[in-house]
Design goal:
Number of strands: 11
Structural class: mainly beta
Helix content: under 10%
Strand content: over 45%
Largest sheet: 7 strands, mixed
Number of helices: 0
Length: about 120
Amino acid sequence: EVQLVESGGGLVQPGGSLRLSCVASGFTFDEYEMNWVRQAPGKEREGLLCISMNGDGTTYADSVKGRFTISRDETKVSLQMNSLTPEDTATYYCATDMLDYCSDVPGPMDLWGKGTLVTVSS
């Protein structure tokens, strides 16, 4: 079965850090770009970062520049989130357009995980 499974979400205090992971199965994960996308309550989905097949990162969202970092290894893609604020509260999804590069803007995504909830609150 082709799927993406996110983990690592939870409750964190403002200023804290959290690391999300996404494990892929059922397809050749290392041949495609991977993205992190989030959706806050009552808001549209927001593409955050992308990492290409070769490990080149692209940041789409100004709101996370300098705070969030995307990385990948042979089995998973990760999102390191630092200096979290309540505005980062959202469900975080990993997704892929099944390309080998990151587009200039977030794509529509062909494959999505089910998401992991991050809540930033004191």
